[in-house]
Design a protein that fits this description.
The complex is a heterodimer of chains A (113) and B (230). Chain A has 113 residues and is an alpha+beta fold. Chain A has a single domain (5-112), classed as Winged helix-like DNA-binding domain superfamily/Winged helix DNA-binding domain (Arc Repressor Mutant, subunit A, Orthogonal Bundle). Chain A has four helices and three strands, in the order αβααββα. A three-stranded antiparallel beta sheet of chain A has the order 1-3-2. In chain A, a hairpin with a 5-residue loop joins strand 2 and strand 3 (74-80). Chain A is elongated, with a radius of gyration of 17 Å. Chain B is an all-alpha fold and 230 residues long. In chain B, helix 1 (4-17) packs parallel to helix 3 (47-58) and helix 2 packs across helix 3. The longest helix of chain B has 41 residues, at 73-113.
């Protein structure tokens, strides 16, 4: 099962914020984490992650720092800020509301069947 | 034979072509690409295979450029203004050179060749028109080989264009002063009138040519069917 592009786009921001809430990370690792969490059902085009990260940074939800990794390669690490954590709570409430609404209507349909 | 460095340079050039990504955006994507290539090669793929798959996973340059365009609006406009200002300065340089050559030509004409005042005026203005035509050809060449301009570091380009701009203005004004000093010594008042009449005749040609030059240029710059209108 592949998840539609629209849904992937809509869920990208809360997903990235929540992954960063687990601890600081960098682009490549975030992509891998999404793949693991979704069991491969959320297929991102890797490069699309970066414009979202940059937007979140300019909105002040996350911050970044360029450091050299243990392999000697320069990496840009992203970290969540206080506003980002607050935003996660708001996203959580919204997504749960959507999920609950869909569930209710689907359950009603099951009862009718 | 496949060389990874060349392939990556080429890939970066493609990303840069759209002018919607900053250098640091491209650098970050490159780091991502290299990480992916390392992992794929550790899994047993050769350099070429790893590059093909990694660059495919990261997304096509067109798609990426489109996404980055949405967040880099200020940077994109700054870049556009940069090239507009470079264009304005180039125009100023060409017009200063045109003036310089026109005055120089007039001086040589009346001094060495011994043209009468009317002819000198005409020749002087015709030189200016010719320089304008060269400008059109110059613009065309610059646009066709625009990638060459982009390869010059922006700071170097600023240095060159400001220096040439100042130099050409100085040349123009020196020629103007020299011309005015000399011409009153050699021409009578009547001849001066003839000279300016000659200039005016030729300037009529210029006023027809000027809009045509810009019309051709603008029509040529209109996005064609093969180009995207964005």
């Amino acid at each position: 099962m592949d998840i539609s592009k629209d849904l992937i786009a809509a869920s990208a921001t809360p997903l990235i914020l929540s992954i960063l809430a687990e601890g600081e990370s960098y682009g490549y690792a975030i992509i891998k984490r999404v793949a693991t969490l979704s069991g491969g059902t959320m297929q991102w085009t890797d490069g699309m992650l970066y414009p979202i990260l940059h937007r979140l940074e300019s909105q002040g939800l996350i911050e970044s720092e360029i450091r050299t990794s243990e392999t000697g390669r320069k990496r840009k690490y992203y970290r969540i800020k206080q506003d980002g954590s607050t935003a996660i709570a708001a996203y959580q409430a919204q997504w749960q509301a959507v999920y609950a609404t869909l569930n209710k209507v689907w359950e009603a349909k099951l009862c009718l069947d | 034979m496949f060389r990874l460095e060349d392939a990556i340079e080429n890939w970066k050039l493609q990303l840069n072509q759209h002018q919607t990504m900053t250098t640091s955006d491209i650098e970050e994507l490159q780091i991502h690409l290299l990480e992916e290539i390392d992992i794929l090669m550790a899994a047993g793929l050769n350099q070429e295979e790893a590059f093909v798959i990694a660059s495919r996973r990261i997304g096509s340059p067109g798609e990426l450029a489109c996404e980055f365009a949405k967040i880099n609006t200020i940077a994109i406009w700054k870049n556009r203004f940069f090239w507009m200002i470079i264009g304005v300065l180039m125009l100023q340089i060409v017009s200063a050179c045109g003036n310089f050559l026109a005055r120089g030509g007039a001086l040589i004409g009346c001094q060495l060749v011994g043209w009468n005042a009317l002819n000198t005026g005409i020749i002087s203005a015709v030189i200016q028109i010719a320089v304008l035509l060269c400008l059109l050809v110059g613009f065309y060449i610059a646009a066709v080989h625009f990638s060459l301009f982009r390869k010059i570091p922006k700071k170097t380009l600023i240095g060159i264009i400001i220096a040439v701009s100042i130099l050409s203005l100085l040349m123009k004004h020196l020629a103007e002063i020299g011309f005015n000093v000399l011409i009153v010594q050699f021409y009578s008042v009547d001849q001066l009138h003839q000279f300016s009449l000659g200039c005016n005749y030729a300037a009529m040609g210029l006023s027809v040519l000027w809009p045509v030059v810009w019309l051709v240029l603008l029509l040529w710059l209109l996005p064609g069917k093969t180009q995207s209108a964005s």
